[in-house]
Model the fold of this input.
Amino acid sequence: MRALVTGATGFIGSRLVRELARQGTEVRSLVLPGEPVEHIRDYTGDIRRGNLDDPQSLGGLIEGIDIVFHLAARVTDWGSRQAFYKPILEGTGNLLAESAEKGVRFVYVSSIAACGLGRHLKGMKESDGACMSGVPYNDAKLEAERLVRSSHDQGLVNAVIVRPANVTGPGSVWVRDIVDRFKGLFVPLLDHGRYSASLVYVDNLVNGMILAGTRSGAVGNTYHLRDDWDVTWKRYLTDLGAMVGKKPGFSIPFSLAWTLGAISERMLTPLNIRPPITRLAAAIMGRDNDVDTTKAKTELGWSTQVSYEQAIAEIRPWVDEYLRR
Done:
């Protein structure tokens, strides 16, 4: 089997490349021009330089490929609409065009954000209606999903969509950014941190992605991937804070956090200044986003392999090293 991985140098992509190689898959990686590749070079025999924003740089990328794992995206909680839509929606469209009518399975790695963050998603199934939320990352992911689905329905690709929950692990944005906030100002709780953190450990996610790419019955389906951990945001932030000798601060009501996020984004994003709070962060930390994962368990045979305690044990050495830099 031969697989293409976009976003191969990223946090999730590099783990996926390593696991595919371990399983005997030939891996081709798409990386940006000038992007460091030392950490994936041992696991991918074919490194291609290109940019999803530039269709001409993608020529021949799909030749000889059986499965496309499309991960490349802007992954952060702030930025202009164009900053998200160009790599996520336009980039996905360019890759779909290059993949069209080549018989590949196209695994699009979306996010539970595509469901429409900002409301409680607890128990939401893949068949339930997703909606636009006005948050650029959320909406770009949803529109990209629709584009992938359209290409599948037209018979251009054999598509599978996976929606990870909040991905954690050594170097995750949900570790690094929180540690940075602890080092700087403070990390507040939203609604007293009582809602589930809705986490998925990176290795558990990678396992689910590979199952989505290889199980015969997965084509045409969407799957939620979230670990069965009983972990609230208060517990998760307390555990990360303990690694830097801090504790989460006072609580902010979700409605206030959402409003402050909207105001901060409107004022600071045009100036290219990161807002101190965003609607995306408020929606993730101040709502219950425990989407239903029954479909992935029954159809893919997916399950949580790494426990929360094991995950924290693996994150701690990374944080220690990060603090020494």
